[in-house]
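Help!! Second protein's tokens look totally different from the first
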Amino acid sequence: MNLKLSVKLIVDALMSLCLFLLMGYQLWGNFAHEWIGTGMFVLFITHHLLNRKWYRGIFSGRLTKRRVCAIVLNILLISDMILLALSGITMSNHVFTFLDIRGHTGTARIIHFIASYWGFILMSVHIGMHWGMISGIIKKHAGLTCKSDTTKAAVKTVSAIIAVYGVYAFCKRDFLTYMLGRTSFVFFDFSEPAVLFYADYLAITATCIYLTYHALKKLKQEGKKNENQRQKRI
């Protein structure tokens, strides 16, 4: 693995870690939340600088369905992160107090609240779009192989079970309620162990990865089928 790819993976891993810590706001408090959020935004900018080549070629070549999905997803993610950053700075009580911003904190809080849940889902889908590459790197460097049909079937079964549980966790954690802004307060059970809280959020991420990965796989198969039919007609 070359140095640039290693740096990219480290940045992405740290960004994912920050995302999970930020979703557990009540576990860490406002001071830590602001600093972790600031760190994540810096990592987000770094991520895009490291992948700036993708943006230079955004409209070159064929605009396949997968590329269109990737473009739309990136636009939504960038917009969401900007909203999170601006609303977070407006509400800041620690990191950005030197800016002396006053007013509109109520609106900023609502925007920050809704954008955080959308951001979590969008980031999870983004990971899903690159899961083939990520899993390939993990398998290669961890020495993992799935040569037997039994092993492959077991992996697929476990993945499906986790994905189904993720749907349950999505409903249990009222994600849709928060994403649609139907409430501005999160119910948080302080008696619940943190490991169970994060297990549910990991399952939700796993569901997004699972659905995105298989949706893109189907798009790729359809693309090949259409291309073969086109070649036959020529």
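Here's the second one for comparison:
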Amino acid sequence: MNKNILITIKKELRSIIRDKKTIFRMLLFPLIIPAMIMLYGTMYDSLEESSENTYKIGIDYQVSKEEIEILKNFHLEYKECDSKECLEEAYKEKEIEAYISYNKEINTYEIYSDSSSTSGMVISSVIEEYLNSYSTLLTNTYLINEKIDLDKAYNHFNIAYEDLGSSNYMLSVLLSVSFTYIIMAICMSTSSMATGVTATERENGTLETILTFPIKKTELLTGKYLSSVILGFVSSLIGLILTIISLNIGKNFYTMFEGFELILSFKTIIASILIIICASFFIAGVALALTSFSKTYKEAQSSTTMLQMLCIVPMFVSLIEMDVTNIYYIIPICNFEQILMDLFTNTYSLVSILLTLASTFIYITIVLIYIIKSYNSEKILFAK
């Protein structure tokens, strides 16, 4: 490689290593990944455990022996009151979490709970299940007294279920978030580097001095571009490693990952590294192009905000469970995140990989041609 290009790469990387703020931003998103995986796993397990919690409710009617058993099965502890006013007072004093009032006139059980809170919604659902079970018990008792065969009364036909889904919704969202942060790490690090290519040096008045040295514009630009690519690749590679480690740890500690198989083969790892390299080359080029007209550091930062926002799009695609077609794999940034998720869940196809690589090569070529033309302009290099 050209000596001047190597010197420029070393200079830029050295300046980044010395800048603690940039290093922090570069590592921020990779470090968020394991934190998110552990948080999602803990939240999911908490929701699973909440279904076995014991809830305290109030009632203003006398329960039968059968009802007592049903209440126990649904983990409901009850407090008997002689009036609705008594129930309201017990709720205000926080002796109970919800209550049921029986209206004899219209033969209706009225459920009172705080629907604005998660716990209130859960309790209301549990109470409704309890009452439905009691209703079924009364129906069965009536049918038996009428000497009607329960099997004939209920089982008119059989129902069989077959799950067509490959994974649970929450796990799919978590994977999407994880791979979003991997690509986001490239955007954050390359954007930081891009602001220093011309914006910071132009603002500090050092760019003109550098160009008086025996170095060509193309060599200077290539060195800065490659240093940005290296920084983006290292940042995302750290994120990928942390994601793989965190998902493997999650499988052993959280029920959310039950049945989840993370595909870790030589082909998968090589393909994912290749995708990250392509993403680094493309995003670094776009970041340079976006900051080319910036005169100050703040202006350069603002111009790269759009690039970082694009990384969030695939995450929303997963949230709404939108079907992904082959066209999606030619959309830059979105395709990088999707193909990484496909690779590690073994849902990829050769067509999707080829579409991603081919389209990325075209985009990189277009971006580089634009950058070369832009930085050959005196207006770009010496704009004030």
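Reply: Different proteins will give different token patterns, so don't panic. The chain has 17 helices and four strands.
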